């Protein structure tokens, strides 16, 4: 009997009498060894952490769960929840994501994120390289957006908001990533493992008391099929999000229950730009042509992180660039971190929002469009 992998590690033995009538379901714990890495992982989790398991490719120590909620889209059955763990993989710190039939280990390397994936549907591991990180030339464009001031935003019913507030015991920040229809050739879990997993782990370090979620959506008419690649891509994306939020009555309580909407695209989001975001706003865009830090970079802008506060670090013997660096050099590695100054900016931004009185229609603030 095939059991869904997300089920607890308890197996059932079906006992049938000779005449074929089902008479009992006897729960028992399976001790059967299996060569499948996903099963081994699930069994280790069920035993309690930390645990070390030996896979074909090396030793994996699962240190602790990461308190981040994940949802992946699924063609057949709504969404697939995911969970994340801090791990040591072959002697190095890494982040692991478990969802559906996947286990993916994200290991940030100097210029790319190495992903070792295991699937319960395939033997052995597979390695993944997402996108071809090419140059990330940015000419920072700043322009005030008047659009934000006129759009009705998040007009959720009072009951919906109250429900959301009850659900959010902690202030909640939801990173909602809409995967453009043109990214359908790329596995969703691997977009997460390459561009997002390591960053979410770091965000949890920066915002330890905030509830963090990452939701991936695909095939959403009016959102994942919009044209982009032109100068007004970000405005168009924001208008599409506003319409969606209005239509779906998304609850949003400043400082308590917030969404940050990202459109993930295959090609450049605007001429010469692999990412765009409103500085301190709710919408951003990132292209898989960008560096592995592109999602961190653009989401950083939405939390007011700036290029000016990015830095080159020399601490590890080889220079690396923090997430908000705009003039990237192929000779420098990624740090996969924000600078201390940008961490402070983001914390201050969230802390200020916390003190903003709850309003359904916050007055629009002039925004800066930034790449
Ligand atoms: Zn930027």
Helical element count? 7
| Contiguous uncertain segments of 5+ residues | 1-34, 129-166, 355-367
Secondary-structure content class: alpha/beta
Largest sheet data: 13 strands, mixed
Strand elements, count: 18
Strand/helix succession: EEHEEEEEEEHHEHEHEEEHEEEHE
Q: What is Rg?
A: 22 Å
Beta content comes to: 25-35%
Q: CATH topology of the largest domain, which one?
A: Collagenase (Catalytic Domain)
CATH class of the largest domain: Alpha Beta
Mean pLDDT: 78
List the helices and strands and how they pair.
Blueprint: E1 10-16, E2 22-29, H1 37-47, E3 51-55, E4 58-73, E5 79-89, E6 92-99, E7 102-108, E8 113-119, E9 125-128, H2 147-150, H3 158-167, E10 172-179, H4 188-206, E11 211-218, H5 233-248, E12 257-265, E13 275-279, E14 283-287, H6 294-302, E15 312-313, E16 320-321, E17 333-334, H7 340-355, E18 368-370
Parallel strand pairs: 4-11, 10-11, 10-12, 12-14, 16-17
Antiparallel strand pairs: 1-2, 3-4, 4-5, 5-6, 6-7, 7-8, 8-9, 13-14, 13-18, 15-16
The structure holds zinc ion.
Question: How would you characterize the overall build of this protein?
Answer:
This protein is of the alpha/beta class and 371 residues long. It has two domains: 14-65 and 83-128, no CATH class; 138-370, Collagenase (Catalytic Domain) (3-Layer(aba) Sandwich). 23% of the residues lie in helices and 32% in strands. It has seven helices and 18 strands. The chain has helices at residues 37-47, 147-150, 158-167, 188-206, 233-248, 294-302, 340-355; strands spanning 10-16, 22-29, 51-55, 58-73, 79-89, 92-99, 102-108, 113-119, 125-128, 172-179, 211-218, 257-265, 275-279, 283-287, 312-313, 320-321, 333-334, 368-370. Strands 3, 4, 5, 6, 7, 8, 9, 10, 11, 12, 13, 14 and 18 form a 13-stranded mixed sheet that branches. The protein is globular, with a radius of gyration of 22 Å. The protein starts with 9 loop residues before the first strand and ends with a strand. The structure holds zinc ion.
């Amino acid at each position: 009997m095939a059991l869904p992998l997300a089920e607890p590690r308890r197996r059932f033995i079906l006992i049938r009498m000779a005449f074929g009538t089902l008479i009992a379901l006897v729960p028992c714990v399976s001790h059967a060894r299996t060569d499948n890495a996903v099963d081994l992982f699930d069994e280790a989790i069920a035993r309690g952490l930390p645990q070390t398991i030996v896979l074909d490719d090396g030793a994996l120590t699962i240190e602790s769960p990461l308190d981040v909620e994940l949802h992946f889209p699924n063609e057949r059955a709504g969404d697939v929840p995911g969970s994340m763990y801090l791990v040591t993989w072959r002697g190095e710190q890494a982040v692991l994501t478990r969802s559906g039939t996947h286990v993916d280990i994200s290991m940030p390397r100097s210029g790319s994120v190495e992903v070792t994936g295991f699937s319960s549907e395939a033997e052995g591991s597979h390695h993944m390289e997402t996108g071809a990180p090419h140059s990330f030339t940015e000419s920072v464009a700043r322009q005030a957006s008047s659009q934000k001031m006129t759009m009705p935003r998040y007009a959720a019913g009072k009951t919906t908001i109250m429900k959301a507030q009850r659900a959010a015991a902690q202030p909640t920040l939801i990173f909602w990533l809409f995967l453009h229809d043109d990214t359908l050739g790329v596995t969703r879990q691997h977009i997460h493992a390459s561009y997002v997993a390591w960053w979410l782990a770091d965000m949890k370090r920066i915002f330890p008391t905030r509830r963090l979620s990452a939701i991936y959506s695909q095939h959403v008419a009016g959102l994942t099929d919009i044209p982009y690649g032109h100068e007004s891509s970000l405005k168009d994306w924001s208008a599409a999000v506003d319409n969606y939020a209005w239509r779906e009555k998304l609850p949003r309580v400043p400082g308590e229950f917030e969404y940050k909407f990202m459109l993930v695209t295959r090609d450049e989001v605007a001429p010469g730009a692999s990412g765009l975001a409103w500085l301190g706003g709710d919408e951003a865009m990132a292209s898989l042509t960008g560096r592995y830090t592109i999602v961190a970079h653009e989401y950083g802008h939405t939390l007011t992180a700036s290029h000016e506060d990015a830095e080159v670090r020399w601490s590890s013997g080889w220079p690396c660039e923090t997430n908000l660096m705009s003039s990237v050099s192929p000779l420098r590695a990624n740090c996969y971190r924000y600078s201390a100054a940008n961490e402070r900016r983001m914390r201050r931004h969230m802390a200020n929002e916390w003190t903003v009185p709850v309003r359904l229609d916050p007055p629009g603030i002039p925004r800066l469009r930034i790449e």
